[in-house]
Amino acid sequence: MTASTFFIPSVNVIGNGALKDAMNTMKDYGYRRALIVTDAVLNKLGVAADIQKRLQEYDILSVVFDGTHPNPTTVNVEEGLEMLRANDCDCVISLGGGSPHDCAKGIALVASNGGDIRDYEGVDRSAKPQLPMIAINTTAGTASEMTRFCIITDVTRHIKMAIVDKHVTPVLSVNDSSLMEGMPKGLTAATGMDALTHAIEAYVSIAATPITDACALKAITMIIDNLPTAVENGSNSEAREAMAYAQFLAGMAFNNASLGYVHAMAHQLGGFYDLPHGVCNAVLLPHVQEFNSKVAAARLRDCAQAMHIDVSAMSDEQGAKACIDAIRKLARQVNIPAGLRDLNVKEEDIPVLATNALKDACGFTNPIQATHEEIMAIFRAAM
Q1: pLDDT tens for residues 65-90?
Q2: Are 256 and 294 in contact (CB under 8 A)?
Q3: Residue 50 phi, psi (nearest 5)
Q4: Alcohol dehydrogenase iron-type/glycerol dehydrogenase GldA domain: which residues (predicted)?
Q5: What is the helix (H) or strand (E) element at residue 163, kind and residue range?
Q6: What mean pLDDT value characterizes the chain?
Q7: What is the pTM of this model?
Q8: Which of 287, 289, 283, 284 is nearest to 301 (CA)?
Q9: Residue-range domain boundaries for the chain
Q10: b/e string for 213-232 if b means 16 or more Cβ within 10 A?
Q11: CATH 3.40.50.1820 fits 11-179, yes or no
């Protein structure tokens, strides 16, 4: 086995009421002026104002940039950067789910490295660490608060750029499950299925290690056990906290084992049609794993076992099928759309979507490399 590297923020605060501990840590770091990167909804709900008030108690001044789109764009990064420079900020605080976290990473990376966010597409293209970033998470899904992945939509090319860079890892991640209790059902379902995708893709990845395996399998079990409850009853604090831990574990898995074709393909749908990432993942997940089961059946059987399926009398192939059936059942249970047609994906766009998916860095660790024809076939099957 070749040497593996394990990436994770140096400090991670998790659990109900974790935000208070995080504020103390931020004060210890000596930050004075923060750019809070969030979206219009969280700003309107007063969540950003609440963070500002708490920061003030610790003598930290802040300004709010709430221009993050659900699929953050190159324009969002430029606008946030302008605000950061105008206010002479020494740190960035992201507040929300994957969208504000990714936008904040883009801003913080360009703030310290210069140039344009497009310069950093690919793996480890930056020369130095980004401006210190604290990620306060309000969803249980993307794990962007603790990863070295940053996904930004290039508005000119209509593609999602994957920036995989150790320098975009936040210095501090905060998963306070009390901030997640107001999350709507649809978002809870989509982000939860995103986390399941992270765990399964990391487990079947060619870069998996014993550490990422342990994280992935535990995440799968916790998601199966808690996602339906979190969707049905958003104020159930136990289910919310369990999902916060589960998505963090899934993040630890994929941050180090990387992902596969589900993400490579979902990124194209998001960049092309501006669709919600978690929903695209959820629709594609069973179809890609069906393709992967040709070589990864034994690993998918392990995933089925993590979903409480008794696989003792099953062959690898039967176990893989049981896993794929369980994914479909969970998606139905949390009301994920049945296929890409429901998301208005057009058959005639599939060739170009497949071409771009094959260029996405996430696909490089898929357990089996596909041809253009095979990727198109998976898209069609998911329609």
Answers
A1: 999 999 999 999 999 999 999 999 99
A2: no
A3: -65, -40
A4: 9-176
A5: strand 159-164
A6: 96
A7: 0.96
A8: 289
A9: 11-179, 185-382
A10: bebbbbbbbbbbebbbebbe
A11: no
